[in-house]
From TrEMBL, chain A:
Domain Thiamine pyrophosphate enzyme TPP-binding: 70-222
Pfam family, one: TPP_enzyme_C
Protein's name in the database: 2-oxoglutarate oxidoreductase
Organism: Ancylomarina longa
GO biological process, alphabetically ordered: cellular respiration; small molecule metabolic process
Residue intervals passing through the bilayer: none
The keyword Oxidoreductase is assigned to this record: yes
Keywords: Oxidoreductase
Gene3D superfamilies, sorted: 3.40.50.970
GO MF term set: oxidoreductase activity, acting on the aldehyde or oxo group of donors, iron-sulfur protein as acceptor; thiamine pyrophosphate binding
TrEMBL record, chain B:
Signal peptide range: none
Protein name stated in the entry: 4Fe-4S dicluster domain-containing protein
Natural source organism: Ancylomarina longa
Organism placement in taxonomy: Bacteria, Pseudomonadati, Bacteroidota, Bacteroidia, Marinilabiliales
Source species, domain of life: Bacteria
Residues in 4Fe-4S ferredoxin-type domain copies: 6-35, 43-72
């Protein structure tokens, strides 16, 4: 038997073990090659599909690269003003308490422009899920410094590296949020290896399940890459992230009540 | 010999050639093609199909979800 016929025998519906979930639309993603957003979208879509809550889920998309998230996941979406996704999600979940409401925000949107909104939404203990994608840079606008940019990291606006005396210190927003009594589940995950993706999926599922119990906000930070902003290839970006971001943004669950 | 035989199907026109699957594959099955798709990306393909065990690692890490994975018991 030749190799090709053997492969053709393996490729049939009975042997299928992994395919794109139906919740992910066929639109080609606009993200750069290797962008972590794609993996996170996929994980969220898979969890919504597995929990069979497609009709009960409302997402709030941010301003940033993931502004077009509503083109990719087949659920109801709203588009918030820059940084104001938690405010919109608050209104949505209060008006429709039976729905699963989540926001999907980047570090520019959540940690900088929407810092006040997220902190107060967390403090109020809104019954929503927040996905915070942290790649330590403003990706969409061309790689400028974000509050989460690491000390010494070169960006478009810190060409000699972030200088804490001039640009301030790197902000660990997730640690700040874990201190607030309104949050119930606060965790930091990544999505660079198959094992990390599986862990992230468990965390996403837990966060959505928490929504039904109405005991506070679930917050998931995902440490991701921005190969265009960092000026590295996707695989180099993952290595850079492991070397530089993981020691500072330590993965793990900070709070689980 | 591996207990399972696998195979992947890559939607080549949607693949952006980020090579995250190449790194994620534990058995070194996937490589980027010399050819390019309509967008000019070197798409991923099964360069070493005999080694595939159908573990789905490539599918999990693919940001564009262009990989479908099949798996069967080795005969």
């Amino acid at each position: 038997m030749t190799a090709t016929t053997e492969i053709n025998k393996i490729i049939n519906e009975d042997n299928l073990v992994y395919k794109k979930t139906n919740l992910l639309l066929d639109n080609e993603m606009h993200y750069c090659p290797g962008c972590t957003h794609g993996v996170i979208h996929k994980v969220i879509a898979e969890v919504i599909d597995e929990m069979d809550i497609q009709n009960e889920t409302i997402g709030v998309s941010p301003v940033g690269c993931s502004v077009l998230a509503y083109n990719y996941i087949d659920i109801d979406w709203q588009e918030a003003a820059h940084g104001r996704a938690p405010a919109l999600a608050t209104a949505t979940s209060r008006l429709m308490p039976e729905k699963y409401v989540f926001t999907y925000q980047g570090d520019g949107d959540l940690a900088s422009i929407g810092c006040a909104e997220i902190i107060h939404a967390c403090n109020r203990g809104e019954n929503i899920v927040v996905f915070f994608v942290n790649n330590a840079i403003y990706g969409m606008t061309g790689g400028q410094m974000a509050p989460t940019t690491l000390e010494g990291q070169v960006t478009a606006t810190t060409p000699y590296g972030r200088n804490t005396a001039l640009n301030g210190h790197t902000m660990k927003i997730t640690e700040m949020i874990a201190l607030l009594p309104g949050t119930r589940y606060v965790t930091r995950q990544s999505a660079e290896t198959p094992a990390a993706v599986r862990k992230l999926k468990k965390a996403v599922r837990k966060a959505f399940e928490n929504t039904t119990e109405k005991k506070g906000l679930s917050f998931i930070e995902i440490v991701g890459t921005c190969s265009s902003g960092w000026k590295l290839t996707p695989t180099q970006s993952n290595e850079w992230m492991k070397e530089n971001m993981f020691p500072f943004y330590q993965l793990g669950t900070l709070k689980d009540e | 010999m591996a207990k399972f035989k696998g195979a992947i199907v890559v939607e080549t026109e949607k693949c952006k050639g980020c090579s995250l699957c190449v790194v994620a594959c534990p058995t070194g099955v996937i490589e980027l093609a010399r050819d390019v798709n309509a967008k000019g990306y070197h798409y991923a393909y099964m360069a070493n199909p005999d080694a595939c065990i159908g573990c789905s690692s490539c599918g999990l890490v693919c940001p564009d979800t262009v990989i479908t994975v099949y798996r069967t018991k080795a005969s």
